[in-house]
Design a protein that fits this description.
mainly beta, two-stranded antiparallel sheet, 2 strands, elongated
Length: 53
């Protein structure tokens, strides 16, 4: 299985058209099940679709 690294710059390309209200990369504790816990590099985004007009 290939490892994928998602960074803010490539994510912006993937979801073009959204206006990011919050966009950050950080390292934090994750708890996503029994075998997926610990420190992880995450991208956190809050975005909105621009108003048409």
């Amino acid at each position: 299985m290939a490892e994928m690294t998602m960074v803010l710059a490539t994510l912006d390309d993937e979801i073009a058209g959204l206006v990011f209200e919050v966009a950050r990369e950080c390292e934090r504790e994750v708890f996503e099940g029994r075998y997926h816990q610990g420190r992880g590099h995450v991208v956190q985004i809050v975005g909105r679709k621009p108003a048409e007009g």
